[in-house]
Specification:
This protein is of the alpha/beta class and 486 residues long. It has four domains: 172 residues, Nucleoside phosphorylase domain (Rossmann fold); 106 residues, 3-Layer(aba) Sandwich (Cobalt-precorrin-4 Transmethylase, domain 1); 90 residues, Rossmann fold (3-Layer(aba) Sandwich); 77 residues, Cobalt-precorrin-4 Transmethylase, domain 1 (3-Layer(aba) Sandwich). 37% of the residues lie in helices and 22% in strands. The chain has 17 helices and 20 strands. A five-stranded mixed beta barrel has the order 3-7-6-4-8. A five-stranded parallel sheet has the order 18-17-19-9-20, with helices on both faces. A hairpin with a 2-residue loop joins β4 and β5.
Length: 486
């Protein structure tokens, strides 16, 4: 695909972005420029007027769509470009930009703001190239309550031009990322039954008891899920002591130690347990092994909440084994009385490497009746492994504190493919996309499905995209809800 033309309505904007094409001020000149320019991708960069009160002089607005009398032009790559701009340290807003054929005065600004638009300009809709990648970035000069014709406009204009100059590397990254792509989706991906159950529990608790409902730690490790539940009235706390006496408290999906349960009882809290049943299984195993006098090797990461809760079942008898090196040196008071369990969200091959060392060193090592690693974790890893070598880059959708999402990155890397973890489409680094014509896409078990769809939509804004799905297996497991929310 040919590089994007950076269209700048004013000469001074052209100087600010160190190049580009001067297209002229206003709809008539913009339409004339669009007619003579070659077809292809275009990025409109310049100063503009703010509409929303939170959009201030010097801020950048990246259009998610451009509205005009002749119709609306969608801009699906907006979140990707906005993310690149934010990584440059710029203040960025995303939302609709309105194209106007006249200077918009204060009363009209208010009316436009009520439609949800963030900024207004006089060129963008007329510069769009039909069927081609398109982007609009406006540095705000005049805002609500601060009209264009005022003494401060000159200073604001200089600030806006400096922001455009600072944004130039992002414009280049957007242009270099333009190309046709094939996206290969690993399936299963995204929510598992335990995550769906945990989220459902919090939502039902809010419906039943009203806000606030308190949740100890993050219900699942995903920032988008937590934010949405906060908007509904969930309050996330670090410890039981942070919850008012007598309030409703939900234990997160990763499980808690018996000490936490006792603390909640002392405070008279109405507890609803959202612990994943597969995590509960590991807790039961630890109690069973320690109850018969075994030292329990817990294969997992000591800092993870699931491991903290599991260790709490028998802190004097559990030894966390985080890697093969530890497995080769770990000891037990009685080498004949040992067992192991696993954190449910580990990479299967990594966990098995550790377990094999333990089995070799302790021939009598007791093992779980069934694998501890969650079926969903295993399925997502195997599904990704099946496609990783067929693509140039793997995008794993998930939050940075999600263990199973981070393990997916490691799985792809062990297959020899570059992989990155992205919390959403705004985290996709455009520079990584420049040489990637085939993208593998998956999501951790705690990542909502809509985030995957948004990544695909963002990629489609950079050029034609074909999407294929590689389905390894169907997941039909469901878990019952606790009686407290039924």
């Amino acid at each position: 695909m040919i590089p994007a033309l950076v269209c700048t309505p004013l000469r001074i904007e052209q100087l600010a972005v160190r190049g580009g094409v001067h297209t002229g001020l206003g709809p008539r000149r913009s339409a004339a420029a669009a007619a003579r320019l070659p077809a292809g991708p275009r990025l409109v960069a310049g100063i503009g007027g703010g509409l929303a009160p939170h959009v201030r002089p010097g801020d950048l607005v990246v259009a998610t769509e451009v509205r005009a009398p002749q119709g609306t032009v969608p801009v699906p790559s907006a979140t990707l470009l906005a993310g690149e701009l934010r990584r440059l340290g710029l203040t960025v807003h995303t939302g609709p930009v309105v194209g106007s054929d006249h200077v918009v005065r204060e009363r009209e600004r208010v009316a436009l703001a009520e439609t949800g638009a963030l900024a207004v300009d006089m060129e963008s809709p007329w510069l769009a190239s039909p069927g081609e990648p398109f982007a609009v970035v406006r540095a705000i000069v005049d805002t609500v309550g601060e009209p264009l014709l005022r003494p401060g406009t000159v200073a604001n204009g200089l600030t806006g031009l400096r922001r455009l100059r600072a944004a130039a590397p992002a414009f280049a990254a957007w242009s270099s990322a333009l190309r046709p792509r094939a996206v290969l989706m690993a399936s299963p991906r995204s929510f598992c039954a335990g995550v769906e159950r945990a989220i459902d529990i919090v939502e039902r608790a809010l419906d039943k008891h009203g806000a606030p409902v308190y949740v100890r730690r993050q219900i699942v490790h995903n920032t988008h899920v937590v934010r949405r539940l906060q908007e509904r009235g969930a309050v996330f706390v670090d410890e039981v002591a942070d919850v008012p006496e007598g309030a409703t408290l939900v234990f997160a999906a990763h499980g808690v130690s018996p000490t936490v349960r006792r603390d909640a009882a002392v405070r008279g809290l109405s507890v609803i347990d959202a612990t994943c049943p597969l995590v509960t299984k590991v807790h039961n195993e630890v109690r069973r092994y320690s109850g018969r006098g075994d030292t329990v090797f817990l294969i997992g990461h000591a800092e993870h909440e699931e491991v903290e809760g599991t260790v709490g079942e028998a802190p004097d008898d559990v030894v966390v084994v985080g890697d093969v090196a530890t497995a080769r040196t770990v000891t037990a008071p009685d080498a004949a009385k040992v067992a192991y369990t696993m954190q449910t969200t580990l990479a299967l091959d990594e966990a098995e490497d550790i377990a094999s060392v333990l089995r070799e060193r302790f021939p009598g090592l007791a093992a779980p009746r069934k694998d501890d690693i969650c079926y969903a974790t295993t399925n997502r890893q195997q599904a990704l492994r099946a496609i990783a070598r067929e693509v140039d880059l793997v995008l794993v959708v998930g939050s940075g504190n999600s263990s199973n999402s981070r393990r997916l990155v490691e799985v792809a890397e062990r297959e020899g493919t570059r992989a990155v973890l992205v919390d959403g489409s705004a985290d996709v680094d455009l520079r990584l996309l420049s040489g990637a014509g085939r993208i593998g896409l998956t999501a951790g078990a705690s990542a909502p499905p809509h985030l995957v769809r948004e990544v695909v939509a963002g990629l489609a804004g950079l050029g034609p995209v074909t999407v294929a799905e590689s389905r390894l297996t169907e997941e039909e497991i469901t878990f019952t809800l606790p009686r407290e929310v039924l």
